[in-house]
Write a structure and sequence with these properties.
about 0% strand; about 45% helix; mainly alpha; globular
């Protein structure tokens, strides 16, 4: 693994922004994402390429999901939204990705309160090969 970038490097993002008031713009993109996810009854995944705008949109959606899904007549407790930084999770292999997703899901109250989900997510991931 490479050494960390020098302090003040403009090409590396800092820590995750936690105050939703810090986000400006991208409202139409976030509305479109919430609309697409609300339209499906099956689990949906949203992926973003790296880039400042994409990261800001992903974090904003994660932090404001409850408010964004309600206008579509959906109950926010029926959804679990997680934000997973693949850079921080060090997902170099498929199995480590699944483990990182399971770890983040287990942090969500809706998942941790469901014994069946907890037991399933604690199982070792199965190799598809």
């Amino acid at each position: 693994m490479s050494s960390p970038p020098p302090a003040g490097c403009p090409f590396v993002a800092g820590s995750m922004i936690t105050d939703p008031q810090c986000f400006v713009g991208r409202q139409e993109a976030l509305k479109a994402i919430a609309s697409r996810m609300a339209a499906h009854s099956l689990p949906a995944s949203m992926w973003w390429a790296s880039g400042a705008s994409a990261v800001v949109a992903a974090v904003s959606l994660f932090q404001t999901w409850d408010r964004r899904i309600q206008p579509y007549g959906k109950n926010p407790v029926e959804y679990v939204v997680v934000y997973l930084s693949l850079q921080s999770a060090h997902c170099r292999k498929e199995m480590s990705f699944y483990e990182a997703v399971a770890k983040e899901l287990l942090k969500r109250p809706a998942v941790s309160a469901n014994t069946i989900l907890v037991n399933a997510l604690r199982l070792p991931p199965q190799d598809r090969m």
